[in-house]
UniProtKB/TrEMBL annotation:
<keyword id="KW-0472">Membrane</keyword>
<keyword id="KW-0812">Transmembrane</keyword>
<feature type="domain" description="NarX-like N-terminal">
    <location>
        <begin position="30"/>
        <end position="115"/>
    </location>
</feature>
<protein>
    <recommendedName>
        <fullName>NarX-like N-terminal domain-containing protein</fullName>
    </recommendedName>
</protein>
<dbReference type="InterPro" id="IPR029095">
    <property type="entry name" value="NarX-like_N"/>
</dbReference>
<dbReference type="Pfam" id="PF13675">
    <property type="entry name" value="PilJ"/>
</dbReference>
<feature type="domain" description="NarX-like N-terminal">
    <location>
        <begin position="141"/>
        <end position="224"/>
    </location>
</feature>
<keyword id="KW-1133">Transmembrane helix</keyword>
<dbReference type="GO" id="GO:0016020">
    <property type="term" value="C:membrane"/>
</dbReference>
Length: 263
């Protein structure tokens, strides 16, 4: 009930929006971005955790886990401070997050990684639910495209996570299906974004870069089982993630109508 009341109030607020309040729209769009980023972090943490267990770039893998944990916490605090964030959805995300964070405290083994992956899946579902709520509250083209572009970040990490767990020895059919489905979803979304008529020259250039990085990652994943390719997949995954993050920021900035540089 609290969540519904919050959403209704926010919709009413947007419908009577004054020019002065229009300055808050960039913040609302950033909320879609940050909530969507939580999806990616839930998968990136498991990817790094699995890499640690297998000894694939262990120093970088540890940094990936620590960085992802810090970013997840920072986004939670930001979303908690944003008045329009649905409270019940936020509570669910925090609960799922605490369970996931506890799961990765154990020494990484295939068994603990499988358990952490289940916890990560629950956190992903909570983040997906919140992101869609925020997107639909705004209900603008910008909120939809930021969500779609931002979801590519998650798919890049979800694919690599599945690859690493399979490479480690998890032969569950569900994980294999997850890998195949994720590859299909990434390609489909990339095609949708590339066909969008309103893309700027900078966005199209980044989409071309993302396509190159995606083709490289797909090629590496196709050599599944080759130990040497775990390193290549790990590096390709991070490169694709950086491209997806830049693209999401470009769409966010375009949506707010603000001309500022993208780091």
């Amino acid at each position: 009930m609290v969540m519904i009341r919050t959403i209704l109030l926010y919709i009413a607020f947007l419908s009577t929006m004054t020019p002065a309040w229009a300055a808050e729209l960039p913040k609302a769009l950033n909320a879609v971005n940050r909530s969507g980023e939580q999806r990616m972090l839930s998968q990136r943490i498991i990817k790094g955790y699995a890499q640690l267990g297998m000894g694939v770039q262990p120093q970088q893998a540890r940094a990936i886990v620590e960085d992802s944990v810090a970013r997840f916490e920072a986004n939670l605090k930001w979303l908690e401070a944003f008045d329009a964030t649905p409270r019940s959805s936020l509570g669910e995300m925090r609960t799922r997050w605490q369970v996931l964070r506890n799961a990765i405290k154990a020494k990484p083994t295939l068994a603990s990684a499988r358990q952490a992956n289940r916890r990560g899946e629950a956190a992903l579902i909570a983040a997906e639910r919140m992101t869609r709520l925020l997107q639909n509250v705004l209900n603008t083209e910008a909120s939809h495209v930021v969500n779609l572009a931002g979801r590519q970040r998650m798919l890049s990490q979800r694919l690599t996570k599945a690859y690493m767990l399979i490479s480690w020895g998890d032969v569950s059919p569900a994980l294999r299906e997850e890998l195949d489905t994720t590859m299909h979803e990434f390609s489909l979304s990339l095609d949708l974004l590339s066909a969008r008529a309103g893309n700027s020259a900078a966005i199209n250039a980044e989409l071309e870069e993302q396509a190159r990085q995606w083709n490289w990652l797909k090629t590496a994943v196709a050599t599944e089982g080759a130990v040497n390719y775990r390193l290549i997949v790990a590096e390709a995954s991070e490169a694709l993630l950086l491209s997806a993050e830049r693209l999401t920021r470009l769409y966010e900035v375009a949506g707010t109508g603000q001309a500022r540089s993208i780091p």
